[in-house]
Amino acid sequence: MQYESFIYLAEIVGVAVFAVTGALAAQGKRVDILGVVILAIVTALGGGTIRDITLNAHPVSWLADTSYLWTAIISAVGAFILCRYVAYPRRALLVLDAMGLALFSILGAQKALAMGQSGVVVVMMAMITGTAGGMIRDVLTREIPLVLHRGGEIYATPAMAGAIFFVAFNGSIDDRLLALISMGLIFAARMAAVFADLRLPEFIVAGHRLESEETARDMEK
Questions:
Q1: What is the pLDDT of residues 126-149, one digit of tens each?
Q2: How far is CA 86 from CA 37, 79, 169, in A?
Q3: What residues does each domain of the chain span?
């Protein structure tokens, strides 16, 4: 398989996975099928759209190739139908989200690198591509975005670490193998955060007591 074909297949899989997470995020939100499809589309295509606009890459990927858009729509409708008959564990959403994060982060890094961007820009584009769609999804469903989640939960950090690895070893390892290793690192780090409860230190001002999650929720009402 040519490297370009590998990238295209990874993009289609990433769109499908993120679209399903957008659809699953509608659980309990009293959203109809149109709302589910909209959530799926913004989740799957939001990060890449912001990346392309930032990099001045025109036309935006899903406008140049509508198969991305159709993949998101079909995945959303499929999830909408399937979830009416098959129960899924809540953590399935987190696992699928981690897969999308891994795929899209490295795909974003690869596109920025192909456009001749510097290492720091490549890492930023990887993080934007991997996390922006999920942030839009969370805002639309009135959830705290995972990137800003209380308790120091690791989310964007794996994307940054994987992108740094991708940039550091670019040219030293076969392109396809490097992409797969980088995606694997991101996915493994995110899964460790979910199942092993790995967290980053929280910001606490000296002399102040950190509020509990229950208190924080009460203050937000």
A1: 999 999 998 999 899 888 887 776
A2: 19, 10, 42
A3: 3-220
